[in-house]
């Protein structure tokens, strides 16, 4: 695609499957393709509007498993008018369990609540952040290499925004190209901590880029909305409203500081179900 007179190559992982696509489909691919004899329930946790909730619900449906998903209290308005990933997960049969009182973080609560697991239960960390995610990301890396060879893209730069950074980390492991990412959920130190838990050798990490301005995850910014609108208008491609605006803004600032003739491959990681809730928020605040 061409955006602001510069060419980008888009890996359309948003088109993998009607409701099992993007980076979560890659990270959860191991659970879809391997045998889990005797498993009938999968347990997860996170935000009630997380992409991982919808993807876990899709995984459970495809595997004919039951999903128990733990989250913090759900706003009353959302319960009364389900939308986005929450609505999508409910439609796929997810059992969403609100945790009213926390004495520790949500992960510690869920682990304590559900351990030890029975032989029929499977626990998946938040967002699929574990070593098992590497197999699906390895397949993504192979596809990127094949695509680059097919289109004769020499020494490309691969860019994707990060939550826990699992996809970016494993991509750098399997790709012979430079991988760029940006910290969407926390700051650079948070992302480096996530990397270190899965790969202690920092020389094997992707390169973290950032913007001059600090942004808070989930908060609405007019420059995010305008950038998202501009990309959609110029390319006819709809990107995620939660991660991709910061991803594209970080990439733009990086390229302004370090202009390059190397091809840029941007990975579209899906997450469009979440736009059903994000877009009305933006339109209410920044109606145009």
From TrEMBL:
It comes from the Bacteria. The keyword NAD does not apply. The modification N6-(pyridoxal phosphate)lysine is found at residue 24. GO terms for molecular function: D-cysteine desulfhydrase activity. Its cofactor is pyridoxal 5'-phosphate. Keywords: Pyridoxal phosphate. The keyword Zinc-finger does not apply. PANTHER family: 1-AMINOCYCLOPROPANE-1-CARBOXYLATE DEAMINASE-RELATED (PTHR43780:SF2). This is 1-aminocyclopropane-1-carboxylate deaminase/D-cysteine desulfhydrase. It comes from Litorilituus lipolyticus.
